Amino acid sequence: MMFRNILLQFLGLGVCVLLLGGAFYGLERLYFAPSRVPPCQQKDLPEGRICPQELMDHWRDARDPSHYKVVWVDARSESDYELNHLLGQGDRIFPIRPGTDLPRLMDAAIERLIRAEQNGECIVVFCTASCTSSSEVADELRRTGLISAPIFVLEGGWSSLQEMPYLQD
Predict the structure, then answer these.
(1) Hey, is 156 helix, strand or coil?
(2) Cα–Cα distance measured from residue 168 to residue 162, given in angstroms and rounded to the nearest whole number
(3) Residue 66 and residue 57 in contact, taking contact as beta carbons nearer than 8 Å
(4) Structurally, what CATH architecture does the domain formed by 42-162 represent?
(5) Per-domain residue ranges for the chain?
(6) Is 121 exposed, middle or buried (CB count within 10 Å of its CB: 0-12, 13-18, 19+)?
(7) Are 49 and 134 contacting, i.e. CB atoms less than 8 angstroms apart?
(8) CA 86, 90, 91, 97: dihedral to nearest 10 degrees?
(9) Residue 111: predicted pLDDT
(10) Cβ distance 114 to 91 under 8 Å?
């Protein structure tokens, strides 16, 4: 009789643990998993887009690992750019955004963008994670036919850029 009571208590406890585990699993799947961003996988991206990790792995300056061999093109809106942008990048950051200023902004940057390949650099265009300006600007840069350096759109945009180590000079 005593053995039976212990067995029933043990089974009851097991059922409670299973129910509690199932509840936690359900909550995690329902509330937390949808907001979790999966890691960027370069193989899953279309040509012309680049994951931040790929950029860090393949475009870091071998002579100075605290620098990237990248010319940055900030395609965010003027107000976003003025609010917060990369500092200390010298002639390696250019605001170029779609709109009426596009030709003027491209003219101001084109000589440096043309020299990027000679310096062993790529060109990375970014905007906010949800905007399409970076793709538009990257396409426009490719259409010039003057730039032979690889041109990429940064997956994750500005927010992924802020998480990259060694970004500031």
Answers:
(1) coil
(2) 10
(3) no
(4) 3-Layer(aba) Sandwich (3.40)
(5) 2-35, 42-162
(6) buried
(7) no
(8) 20
(9) 93
(10) no
pLDDT tens digit sequence for 56-115:
888 888 887 777 899 999 998 877 767 666 655 566 788 898 888 889 999 999 999 999
Residue-wise pLDDT tens digits, 129-160: 778 899 999 999 999 999 999 999 999 888 88
Residues 6+ apart with CB under 8 A from 118: none
Model confidence, pTM:
0.73
CB 152 within 8 A of CB 71: no
What is the distance between the alpha carbons of residues 157 and 122, in angstroms, rounded to a whole number?
Answer: 16
3: pLDDT strictly greater than 90 = no
Q: How many CB atoms lie within 10 A of CB 54?
A: 18
